[in-house]
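Late entry, evening session. Most of the bench is empty. Finally got around to the prediction I had been postponing all week. Sequence below, unchanged from the version circulated by S.P.
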Amino acid sequence: MSYFLISVSNKTNLDLCIKYALAGFTNSINGLWTFLEIEEGDYISFLYGARVFNLYKVIKKIAYKNADQLPPWPSVTFSMSGKTYYFPFRLYLKQERTLNEPMVRPEFAYVAENLLLRGGYRKTHFQADAITFHSVSSMGEVFNGQNDELKEIYEDSFTPKIVFERKRQIIPEKFYFQELLLQSLIRKYLSSTHHLKQILEHFKIPENPNNFEVLGEKALPEGHIDIFIKTKHPNAYSHKIVVEVKTGKIKVSDINQIKGYIKELGPECTGGVIIGKDFPKRICESRPSSIVALKYKFENLDRIWEYTYKDLAKVLSLEAIS
C-alpha cells in the first residue's frame, strides 16, 4: 500500500475530482505512468494551490477508449504544439477523510521538498512516505457523505500495452517503452520483501525489510533520484539507499551522478544502486564499492510483441555485475 499526492492543474478540475471522487490522467506518457504506478488499494490526496485536499482509497482503475469526449473533463488542445490531451486513464475513489490543509505544515515536508526543488507542479504525482500518510490519516474529519455518480459514462475500456518499437506506438492504447516505465517496474520489483532483503544484505544492513520503504522519485538540489529506499519509521538513525535507473548503457556521468547523491545525503546514506541494460568494462573497473551495479533484463521478450505492465513485471529480473 502506498500514498500519493495527485497534482491538479486548475480549480475547475479539482472541483470535478472532488465532486465525483475521480482522478483522471491524460493520454501522455506521464498520464500512463501515473495510472500504472498507482494500484487499487493505494491512497491518494489531491494537490492544488499548495494545499492538500481530502484522503481517498483507490477502489478501481479503468482506461477508456474514445475518451476525447468523455466527461467530466474537456479535452485541451495546445496552440503551440497542436496536440490534444484528454483523460482516458481513470481512478475511481472512495473518500475516507475530508481535509483542506496547507503544504507548509511540517507533516508534508517530504512532499513539499520535492515540489519546491522541482519548481512547481510539472510532475503528475508525488509519492509520499509512510510518516506523511500516518499524519494525513488523522487530519480533518472522517467522511460520512456520498460523492456524486458520473452519468452516461462509456463502458468501452482497454488494457494499456507497452511496445519496444516506436513505430508500433498507438497512443493511448500502446506506448513505446521509456525510462519512466522502467523506473516504475523496478520500484515495484525492489519493493518485494525478497528482493529488498538482497539489497540490504549487500550493504550489510541487518534489519527486517519490512522496516523499509521503496519510494519513487526524490528531488535533491543535485538532481532527482529515481528510486529512494529508506527506513520507514526512523529510530535515532535512518538508513538511506539511492537507486538510479537507465534504459540503456551506463556512462561515467551516471556513476558520478549517483556519487553526488550519496555525498549530498550524508553519512546516513549507506550507498547506491545503478541499474542499466549494459555496463562497459571501464565502468565496472572504476565503480566504487559503495555503488552496486545491476543489469536488468526481461526474460524471453520478443520486441515485435506488445506487453501489459503486469506481463513485464513478471519477466523482469536484475543481475549483479561484478
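Two things to note before I forget:
The CA atoms of residues 58 and 93 lie 5 Å apart.
The chain has nine helices and 21 strands.
Will write this up properly tomorrow.
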